[in-house]
Structure formats: C-alpha cells, structure tokens
C-alpha cells in the first residue's frame, strides 16, 4: 500500500511544520511502513540548526520515524481516528548528518505489541546508508 501526502493527512493528525513524512512507499497495516521525507532548505529548523551549516536535528529524524510507524499502527480499522503517543526511545544512534537535498528513507517495523502499547524498530537512511536508528515504544490512544 502506498500513500500520498493527502492520504497520510487522513491518518495522522500532524500538519505543517510538524508533518515529517512526504510519502508512504509501502505499508502493511499493524506491522510495518516505509516512507520518505524530502529534506528542504526551506524548513523552519534550518533557521537555527545551524545557520550556514544546516543539519536536520536528530529528534526530528526520530519523530519522522515515529510518524511512519504511526501510519502503520493507525492503518488498522480498529485504530481509525486514534493517535499514537511516544512511550520511550531506546538505543537511538545517529550515524551521519542529514542535510537539505537529502531524501530520508524511513522504515519502522513493529516487533511487539500488547494491547495499546507496542515496540517498534526504526531505521532512517540516506542513499542506502544508515543515518539514524532507534527502538521506539508507543501507545495508541483516543484523541
């Protein structure tokens, strides 16, 4: 299943400037999702991070990964209209800079779920090389 930005906005409550996924390239509801984020010099964070040397903040890379995972979780019919909240972030690692012009390849895979709480493995790549990875704990909640 592929989703464009309009379809993503039907699932996620996030909006500009905090919607950090441009396209879902593959999604197996409740299991995994892959997406992309086209990093642009026009984004607000680059005004201050860092002037003259724009680098996408690691926390925003993790948020983009979480949003891809949220698409997978919220694509299940029983989760329609709900939101996904962070429960924790473990083993976050940042391997290379992400800069304007990069296409961030995002992949989040659910590895465990009990009721509304789950754990997902997440990896962000640029040109096939790992830029960041983390294990994300999440909770599905009513809005």
Automatic annotation (TrEMBL):
Its main location: cytoplasm. Its EC number is 4.2.1.59. It is found in: Cytoplasm. InterPro entries: FabA_FabZ, FabZ, HotDog_dom_sf. Pfam families: FabA. One of its GO terms (molecular function) is (3R)-hydroxyacyl-[acyl-carrier-protein] dehydratase activity. This is 3-hydroxyacyl-[acyl-carrier-protein] dehydratase FabZ. It comes from Eubacterium uniforme.
């Amino acid at each position: 299943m592929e989703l464009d930005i309009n379809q993503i906005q039907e699932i996620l409550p996030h909006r500009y400037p905090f919607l950090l996924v441009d396209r879902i390239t593959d999604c197996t509801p409740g299991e995994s999702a892959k997406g992309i984020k086209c990093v642009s010099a026009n984004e607000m964070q680059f005004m201050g991070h860092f002037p003259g040397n724009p680098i996408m903040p690691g926390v925003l890379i993790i948020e983009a990964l979480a949003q891809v995972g949220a698409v997978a979780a919220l694509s299940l019919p029983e989760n329609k209209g709900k939101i996904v909240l962070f429960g924790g972030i473990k083993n976050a690692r940042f391997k290379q800079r992400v800069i304007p012009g990069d296409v961030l390849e995002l992949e989040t895979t659910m590895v465990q779920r009990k009721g509304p709480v789950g754990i997902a493995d997440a990896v962000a790549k640029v040109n096939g090389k790992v830029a960041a990875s983390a294990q994300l704990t999440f909770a599905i909640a009513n809005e």
